[in-house]
Amino acid sequence: MIGKILGVFFGMLFGGPLGALFGLFIGHQFDKARRLNQGGFARGGFGGADQAKRQEEFLTSAYAVMGHVAKAKGQVTKEEIQLATIMMDRMNLNSEQKRAAQEAFREGKSADFPLERILDKVRISSGGRHDLLQFFLELQISAAFADGSVHPAEREVLHRIAQGLGFSAQQLEQRLRMQEAAFRFQQGGNFGGGHYQGGQQSGSWQQASSASQLSDAYDVLGVSEDADAKTLKRAYRKLMNEHHPDKLMAKGLPPEMMNMAKEKSQEIQNAYDLIKKVKGFK
């Protein structure tokens, strides 16, 4: 209502009766946009009644784009299909949700897949939240790394995805380096598939003290190997804040993706703990 009032007032002031009519129209558009911002994505999350629908769109879009990434190099590998299946299991999807995810994955492989339009939907369903969009992008990077490396055609698609989600080429390349390091860190560290159980040390934890594992740990956190304790802690806290499962859930992450968010947080924690242990940081 306030938009209409102000529109009429300033329209009359500067343009007389015709200006008032024009001001009324502009004010109406302002009020309409204001209601959408206050209702649809209140407090930065999903809007009440639409929450489940938007979360479902986010989930199915993730699998559709994942299928598109997998198909980029011409043939979908068994590792990529296995990764999609593993993700479904980690998300504890019910039979109906699995069918929807599988169908979305198949649609993503089609030659006429409307990538840009789907990415627009993702931006809307996420409310434009940076951390949710980043989580979505990291899912696609993980899919590209399913077979251990990123094909040039997959990298090209990832750049399109990043651009569609509002990330720069530099931001994508940094995430690619971090994910590549995370892939090696998980494989070399052998933390039960990349997950450090209960904070207890094991024989596999000792293996992670190698120079290559330490280097990968720094890359996982996105810092240089000469970073001091303060820089390291700042990077760690930033990443944990971006990937904290509870915070992502509060902002609209589908509950089915909670386990994956936890795993990512644990991966960051593992890297940080290793560097502190080897370097003697507190």
Distance between the termini: 56 Å
Radius of gyration computed on alpha carbons? 23 Å
Low-confidence runs of at least 5 consecutive residues: 2-14, 28-49, 190-209
Query: In which range does the helix fraction lie?
Result: over 70%
- Count of DSSP helices? 13
- Structural class designation: mainly alpha
**For the report, how would you describe the main beta sheet?**
none
Order of helices and strands, N to C?
Answer: HHHHHHHHHHHHH
> How many extended strands?
0
Beta-strand share of residues: under 5%
Shape: globular
Mean pLDDT metric: 75
How would you concisely characterize the structure shown here?
Among the domains are: 119 residues, no CATH class; 69 residues, Helix Hairpins (Orthogonal Bundle), CATH 1.10.287.
Descriptive tags:
transmembrane helix; 13 helices; DjlA_DnaK_co-chaperone; mainly alpha; Helix Hairpins; 282 residues; single chain
What does this structure look like?
- Residues 29-282 are cytoplasmic.
- One of its GO terms (molecular function) is protein-folding chaperone binding.
- It comes from Vibrio mediterranei.
- InterPro entries: DjlA, DjlA_DnaK_co-chaperone, DjlA_N, DnaJ_domain, J_dom_sf, TerB-like.
- The chain crosses the membrane at residues 6-26.
- The structure is a single chain.
- With 282 residues, the chain is an all-alpha fold.
- Among the domains are: 48-166, no CATH class; 209-277, Helix Hairpins, CATH 1.10.287.
- The protein is 73% helix and 0% strand.
- The protein has 13 helices and no strands.
- The protein has helices at 2-40, 51-71, 78-90, 95-108, 115-125, 130-144, 152-165, 169-189, 203-207, 211-221, 229-243, 245-250, 258-279.
- Helix 6 runs antiparallel to helix 7.
- The chain is globular and about 50 Å long.
- 31% of the residues are buried.
- Mean pLDDT is 75; it is low at 2-14, 28-49 and 190-209.
